[in-house]
Structures are given as structure tokens and as C-alpha cells.
Design goal:
Elements: E1 3-14, E2 19-27, E3 30-35, E4 41-47, E5 51-55, E6 57-62, H1 75-84, E7 87-92, H2 104-117, E8 121-124, E9 126-127, H3 136-142, E10 147-150, H4 164-176, E11 180-184, H5 188-200, H6 206-211, H7 215-232, E12 235-238, H8 244-255, E13 260-264, H9 266-270, H10 273-279, H11 292-303, E14 309-310, H12 342-353, H13 357-371, E15 389-393, E16 398-399, E17 418-419, E18 422-428, E19 431-435, E20 438-439
Parallel strand pairs: 1-4, 1-5, 6-7, 7-8, 9-10, 10-11, 11-12, 12-13, 13-14
Antiparallel strand pairs: 1-2, 2-3, 5-15, 15-18, 16-17, 18-19, 19-20
Helix pairs in contact: 4-7, 7-8
Length: about 450
């Protein structure tokens, strides 16, 4: 008979290759036994009968805006929202803080805020922008998990898009630093040309906005970046890919030996351009929600296992930035607020399309951990890994309301959506951080500095 810090009993545990009804024991923050624990005791016990035990999500793509714009979304509300969604680790993007995370000082300033406020673990991306090539080494040595660049306009004059010269020089330096470059891949030339045409005609509707960011703009930028990666040896991670054509180019590059991974987001799988027309600015993002035919292509690619991982691209703002004068969709802030709903979304898709739950677990946890150097500690429910888990019930539904959405601003394309499942609890290193609609753990999360984890692959 043994005593553990926590025993999760009788759950359907989502293991790397199967789902098995069993028990999980956690001691000192680490999973030390998976199996029948009848006769053993826990200082804390959770009865998970008829519930599914998933590894905690690792979301490598969120936009919190602290320091400087905590009124958009800060580490406190943002991390609580992620915990409520079964996420135990996230990577924050460098774009929207003041200052943007484009040098070592900004990285350390942001990390200090995160360590004081985040209730779950986090990593920090550095930025690649014109003029900061010499800052990349300092960012890497100080703990940035990788670098993010935009190939189209960002809407932030403090974090400009990377022109081709910046991209080539930056990719060469990032390759030398053995880091990964994450790319928002849309052609600035194509999108700006089409936007100007629409504006000249006085056309500002949802359909007009979508038409200015076509699949070809994404595919062209992807192909160009892949060419530069082949020249420089830089490893790439494509964020929020939204089209079958872009995926064709990425998969061709993989077959040729390029080191590249790709994510998509739940909103491209659950929603389409009709949602943008119906709901307006809360559904605006870039790339835009695609038409139904393209959405169906993405779902087919998901079912076939062609995406490496799923991330939220949680990108909030105060609602006044989503509500421009004269309903000009071009002027509204572009971003989906919904980091809380990624795991719920993927379980909905799994139920609808009969996708095995262990594949969902890999997309939301195992693959991100493997790609970004966390796999010795996180990403799977396995002996020796940290006790980061989410408890999910399929016996209850979850309808998104302002009361149960933990983000600072309650406007979201997900508002009113009913999921066929609910997250009952989230544990970080074996301690409850979220349970029954409440944040229960006030310990701070850990900043996952890149030098403290194994090299990413």
C-alpha cells in the first residue's frame, strides 16, 4: 500500500496509443504510476468515473498583450482562461505587448510579469522584425522558445512585417542559433493590392474582406518561405494554415526533407465564411474563415492526420476595436478570441468524425511538446512526465456564455456555441488549477526558458 499526493481514479485515460480505463498516481508533480491503484491512497483523490483524462493542452500560439496592454488581455485573465480550457502550458507571441518582444530587455520584462501572474506554465516567443537581426542571439540566450515573423501587415507599427531581405537574413541567423521561425504566411503584396481595389470601390463587407485575403495569398507566402528555408537551413513552423493549397506546398517540402511543421486552429475547422457574414467582426481573423468547400478540405486533412498540431491563435482586443465606424470590416481588429475552447472544439470534431481521442491528445499536447523541446517533461500521460491533465466529461454539454468565458473581453465567435462535452477539472503538476467552473490554484506557473528544456526537433 502506497500513499501519493494525488490519485485520479477510474478515468478513461488518453494514453499515447490508446484510451484505457485505469488510475493515475502523481507524486511531487510527476506521474509515477498508471494502473490499478486499489488499496493505495492519495492525499487528494479525484473520482473520474465515466470521464476522460487528457494530457494538458500545450498551446504554442496565444496573444496576450502584457506588459502595456493588459486591458486587451493580460497574463492573469489569459492564463485563467487557458486553464479553464484544459491548457496547462502556452507560448505567448511577441506582437502586442508594449514593448513588443523584439529584444532581450523586452523578453525579460514580459517574463517577469508572466511569472507573477500566470497560473499555468508558459513560454515566450521572440520577434523577427526589420532592424532587429542583432537582437536575435540575445533573445535566444535569454530563453525565447523561437521567433515569430509576419509576411503581411501586422496592424502594429512597432512590430512590422518582415520584408524579404529581413526574412533571409533573419532565417540565416535563426538557423545558426538552432531555433525555429514561426510564420504568419500571407503575401503582403497580394493582400494590399486587393484591399486597395476594394477600398477604391467603397466595398467593405465580410465577403469583400475575405476576397482580399485569398488562398493564393497564403500559398504564395508559404512557397516563398519554404524556398528561403531551403537556402538558409532554417527550421519553420507555419501558424494558422487555412487552405488545402498551402498544405500541399508544405507537404511537398516535407517530402523533400525540409524541417517544417504546421498548425491549424479550431475556428477554421468549426466555422466558415458564412459565420463571418453572420457574426461580423467577432469572426474576423487573418487568414479569414474560408468558404465551406475549403473548410471541408481542412477537416479531411485533419482526419488524415496531415496537420502536426492544433493551436488557438487566441487574439483578443477591447471590443471598441472590433466595432469600427460605418461597419467597415477592414478597420476592425482581426483576431479570434477563443483560447479556452480549443480542446473542447477538438473533442467535438473527434465525436463528429470518429477521430480516436489519442490522436486529439497528440495534436494538442504530444506533438507540440516534441517539436518545442518539452517531450521529456510534458505532452503525454506517461510515467515520468509532469502531472498536467484535463478531465473531460462527455455526459454534459458546455454552452459558451459571458459567465463561463474567462477572457477579459467576452465577445467571441464561440459565444452561444454548445459543445458536446465539458471540462470539469485541470491539474498542473498534480495540483488543481481549475475545477467546476472556478480557478482553484493560485500558485504561479513556470517560465519555460528554452535553455532549460531539451533542444527542439
Amino acid at each position: 500500500m502506497s500513499t501519493y499526493d494525488l490519485i485520479i481514479r477510474n478515468g478513461y485515460v488518453v494514453l499515447p496509443d490508446e484510451v484505457k480505463k485505469t488510475d493515475v498516481a502523481i507524486q511531487n508533480g510527476v506521474i509515477i504510476k498508471i494502473g490499478n491503484l486499489l488499496g493505495d491512497t492519495g492525499l487528494e483523490e479525484y473520482e473520474a468515473c465515466d470521464q476522460y483524462v487528457f494530457p494538458g493542452m500545450i498551446d504554442v500560439h496565444v496573444h496576450f498583450s502584457e506588459p502595456g496592454r493588459a486591458h486587451w488581455e493580460g497574463f492573469e485573465t489569459g492564463s485563467q482562461m487557458m486553464a479553464a480550457g484544459g491548457c496547462t502550458t502556452y507560448f505567448d507571441m511577441p506582437l502586442n505587448g508594449i514593448p513588443s518582444t523584439i529584444d532581450e530587455a523586452a523578453l525579460l520584462e514580459k517574463a517577469k510579469v508572466g511569472e507573477a501572474k500566470s497560473v499555468v506554465d508558459f513560454g515566450l516567443w521572440g520577434g523577427l522584425v526589420p532592424g532587429n537581426i542583432e537582437e536575435l542571439e540575445g533573445l535566444a540566450k535569454s530563453g525565447a522558445v523561437g521567433f515569430k515573423a509576419f509576411l503581411s501587415a501586422t496592424g502594429n507599427d512597432k512590430f512590422e512585417r518582415a520584408d524579404d531581405f529581413t526574412l533571409l537574413h533573419g532565417m540565416r541567423e535563426i538557423a545558426k542559433l538552432d531555433k525555429i521561425l514561426a510564420l504568419h504566411a500571407e503575401s503582403d503584396s497580394i493582400t494590399q493590392f486587393l484591399k486597395q481595389e476594394k477600398e477604391d470601390q467603397g466595398l467593405f463587407s465580410a465577403e469583400d474582406y475575405a476576397a482580399t485575403r485569398p488562398v493564393l495569398a497564403e500559398a504564395e507566402a508559404v512557397e516563398r518561405a519554404l524556398t528561403y528555408a531551403e537556402m538558409t537551413g532554417c527550421r519553420l513552423h507555419f501558424v494558422h494554415i487555412s487552405s488545402g493549397l498551402a498544405m500541399e506546398k508544405i507537404e511537398a517540402a516535407k517530402r523533400c526533407g525540409l524541417d517544417v511543421t504546421v498548425e491549424t486552429c479550431p475556428h477554421y475547422l468549426l466555422f466558415n465564411q458564412d459565420t463571418l457574414v453572420e457574426k461580423g467582426t467577432v469572426a474576423k481573423c487573418a487568414p479569414p474563415l474560408r468558404d465551406k468547400a475549403e473548410q471541408e478540405k481542412l477537416i479531411a486533412l485533419l482526419i488524415e492526420g496531415r496537420f502536426d498540431m492544433i493551436s488557438s491563435d487566441h487574439s483578443p482586443c477591447p471590443y471598441e476595436l472590433k466595432d469600427p465606424a460605418e461597419h467597415n470590416l477592414f478597420e476592425a481588429w482581426g483576431g479570434i478570441s477563443g483560447g479556452q475552447f480549443s480542446l473542447l472544439s477538438m473533442i467535438e470534431l473527434a465525436i463528429t468524425y470518429e477521430i480516436p481521442f489519442h490522436k486529439i491528445a497528440d495534436w494538442i499536447a504530444g506533438a507540440p511538446a516534441e517539436r518545442f523541446g518539452l517531450s521529456s517533461r510534458k505532452g503525454q500521460i506517461k510515467v515520468g512526465k509532469e502531472g498536467d491533465v484535463a478531465i473531460v466529461s462527455l455526459n454534459d454539454t458546455h454552452t459558451v456564455t459571458e459567465d463561463n468565458f474567462f477572457a477579459k473581453h467576452k465577445q467571441s465567435v464561440y459565444m452561444g456555441h454548445t459543445f458536446p462535452c465539458t471540462i470539469n477539472a485541470t491539474f498542473k503538476k498534480g495540483k488543481p488549477v481549475y475545477e467546476k467552473g472556478e480557478i482553484t490554484q493560485q500558485d504561479r506557473g513556470t517560465w519555460l526558458k528554452s535553455m532549460e528544456i531539451e533542444p527542439s526537433i
